[in-house]
Amino acid sequence: MKVKKLTNFDFAILIPVFHNKDKIKPLKDEIVKYLSKYEYFVCFVDDSSDNETKIEIEKTFSNNFHVLKRVKKEKFSTRFSASLDGFKWINNNVDTNYIVEIDSDLAHHPKDIENGIELLKSSNCDLVIGSKYHKESVVKNRKVSRIFISKFITIICKILFNKNVSDYSNTFRFYKLSLVENFINREIVFKSPIGHLNNLLFIIKSGYQIKDIPTSYIETDAESAIRTSSLARYLIEFIKCIIFNKFK
Questions:
Q1: Domain 11-141+172-188+203-218 architecture
Q2: This prediction's pTM
Q3: Among 68, 147, 150, 190, which residue has the fewest nearby CB atoms (within 10 Å)?
C-alpha cells in the first residue's frame, strides 16, 4: 500500500543525532528563530544507544517532525548511513523539493539555511554546500586535527576532481530532491563520514551543478578531536574512496 506523503513543506531538514539530548532545545530555538517564514519538516535520525535523545526531541518538537530510530552496532561513526536512511525516509514520506542536512550541535547554524534554500530555488544548481572555505565564512574553535584533515581532503580532491568545489568535507549541504532520488539507492560503500565524500564525488562525476555559500562554522563540541583509531579508519577509507572514484 502506498503511503500518503506529508504535504505543503518548503523543505525538509535532515538531522543525524547521537546522544545529543542537551543540544535539542537550543537547536529547536534557533530553527524557529530563523525559519519562521517557512513551512518545514524535520527528520531526526537517532543512532543513540538509549532513548533519551528521542524522548527529548518528542518533548521539544510539537509537530512536523519524525524520529527515525536506528540500532547502531558498529563501534565507529556511521554518519553517512544514518543520513542515507534519513534521505530515504524523507523521500518516501514528505512532499517537498528540497532537503537540507545539518548537524545537531549548532556548529552549522540554522540561520544559514535560508541562503542555501533560496539559492537552490533561484539557480540551476542541484547541490549547495555550506563551505567553511568560502571567503566570507566565519570559522572558529576548530581543533587542529580537524582543520588538517579537512584541508587535506579538500586539497587532494580539488586537484583530482573539481577545483571549483571549495569544501569537500562539510556535511552542511542543500539538495534538490531530484538529485537525492538519484543516489539514495546506490550501494553503501562507506558507512562512515567518508561516505559523504564518496557521495559528493558521485555527484561531481555525474555532472550535477554545485554551488557554495558562506557559512558560520563554530565548533561547539569540546570532544570533537578525532580519535586515533577513527583517524586510521578514515585514512584507509579515504584512500579507497579516491582510488574507487578516480581509477574505476
A1: Alpha-Beta Complex (3.90)
A2: 0.93
A3: 147
